[in-house]
Fold this sequence. Notes:
The protein has one helix at residues 31-34; strands at 36-39, 42-44, 54-58, 69-73. It is mainly beta. Strand 1 (36-39) and strand 2 form a beta hairpin. It starts with 30 loop residues before the first helix and ends with a strand.
Amino acid sequence: xxxxxxxxxxxxxxxxxxxxxxxxxxxxxxxxxxxxxxxxxxxxxxxxxxxxxxxxxxxxxxxxxxxxxxxxxx
Length: 74
């Protein structure tokens, strides 16, 4: 049973299987926004990604002030 296949390059993704019978593929929570038909030859697929990043900086002021560690998340 095919299901959502996510690739690093978004233009390689193909959600045309969502136009088939509901029993022929594994359902996913995001199916309603992956294959929105706008016309006969025009489709819209909406997606996104989440990236977590943590930075730690020491001596950010180049000794102009007291040394301190600054850790933050982006």
